[in-house]
Amino acid sequence: MHKLLDNKLVNGIIGFAIVLVFWQLGSMALNKPFLPTPAESFSAFFTFLMNGKMGPHFLISTFRIVSSILLAMVLAIPLGLAMGRIHWLGRLLNPIVYLLYPLPKVVFLPIIVVLMGLGNWPKIFLIALVVFFQIVVVTRDAAGSIPQASVQSMRSLNASSWQMFCHLILPACLPQILTSLRITLGTAIAILFFAETFASFDGLGYFILDGMERREYPAMYAGIIGLAILGLGLYLIVDVLEQKLCRWQKK
Fold it and tell me: 233 and 153, same structural domain?
């Protein structure tokens, strides 16, 4: 595991260096204020972080994204498992999922704001709504694809329903659930940015938009760096969870 982590760290450093090189070359080629150099952007990021101007925005965005993902998981995982294993429930709910899943949930933000007001909960609800459908579809398909032979083997051992869930259904679905969560993080961060630029006065999305409107481009890129760090941190947490909870997948 240590070797795997070392390889990922080296690859991450190389990838980060490549991004910085292209960023620097692009800034030098354009020579425009709207694309400052990486040094200027990171300097602004640490300046805003140290003087306390960015910290509250970073914390409130972290709270919103983590709360929405946890809420979506608590609702989507049990429902997806039930839809995949209980056939009549799947037949009942699948048409509803097929109807609502393709809809762009962001269009409901004005309605959500009218119903729930300003503040954290409209943003948390919108992100959770988007993440919910992505997780429930993957979880349903994973639960429905468990080989019947494995189920019969567990039954032949007189396993209870709870033992069946703990030792077969959940372990079989967990890798796909974590993979869907990893993929969903990018969408959740994008929805977070959109929600924080609509009738909002805090969060990294607001910080970025405020910097753009005032043409303080280093501040804008500082906010972008903060949002990228937030997404990267959540991605790494999911990666660690997968290594801890799905060890049987590793060679």
Answer: yes
Give the Cα-Cα-Cα angle 107, 57, 185 (nearest 5 degrees). 50
- Contact between 109 and 124 (Cβ < 8 Å): no
- Looking at the structure, tell me whether residues 27 and 142 fall in a common domain: no
Highest mean pLDDT pick, 160-164, 173-177, 246-250: 173-177
Tell me the residue range of the domain where 63 lies: 38-249
Number of structural domains (the chain) is: 2
pLDDT in tens, 124-150: 999 999 999 999 999 999 888 888 888
Residue count of the chain, please give it: 251
User: Residue 91: is it exposed, middle or buried by C-beta count within 10 angstroms (0-12/13-18/19+)?
Assistant: exposed
Q: What is the pTM assigned to this prediction?
A: 0.85
Confidence class for position 8, pLDDT limits 50, 70, 90: low
- The CA distance from 117 to 199, in Å, is 10
Residues ≥6 apart with Cβ < 8 Å to 18: none
Grade residue 159 by pLDDT with cuts at 50, 70 and 90: confident
